[in-house]
Amino acid sequence: MILGVGSRAPDLTLPDQHHDRVSLSGLVADRHVLLVFFPAAFSSICTGELLEIQLNIDEFVNDKVQVVGVSCDPLDALRAWAALEGYRFPLLSDFWPHGEVSRAYGVLNESTGAATRGTFLVDPTMTVTWSLVHGPGEERPIGLLHEAVRDL
What we know:
Layout: E1 13-15, E2 21-23, H1 24-27, E3 32-37, H2 44-55, H3 57-60, E4 65-71, H4 75-85, E5 91-93, H5 100-104, E6 108-109, E7 114-115, E8 117-122, E9 128-134, H6 142-150
Parallel strand pairs: 3-4, 4-5
Antiparallel strand pairs: 1-2, 3-8, 6-7, 8-9
């Protein structure tokens, strides 16, 4: 079941592309967190979506909000992809135990072992205040992400 608006966001602690452990509860202590689940590094739709976020980094990473990407890819893939594309925000690996966080948010595609395109805005009380979920092959409308963070 996909986590809905008003739900308590499950805490997570996952390694980022630099092997640093990142926890949701630590990030929301200061600001909102926009969790962007994506199926696969190096795929065309995911690259386009995350590049749009990177191009507007000041809107998605500031004193009100922190964007964080999450996928079931291994750390080495995320590190290489972040270096190639120049992403300046955390990309978290939900690789092991495989998909545990994606499953908790209701966005793990069990048949492929990859996350769907789920996006969740979590406030400092660990409450989901906004969400958007798209299936495989469906690009999420980035304009809706812009609207969600502009309304903070």
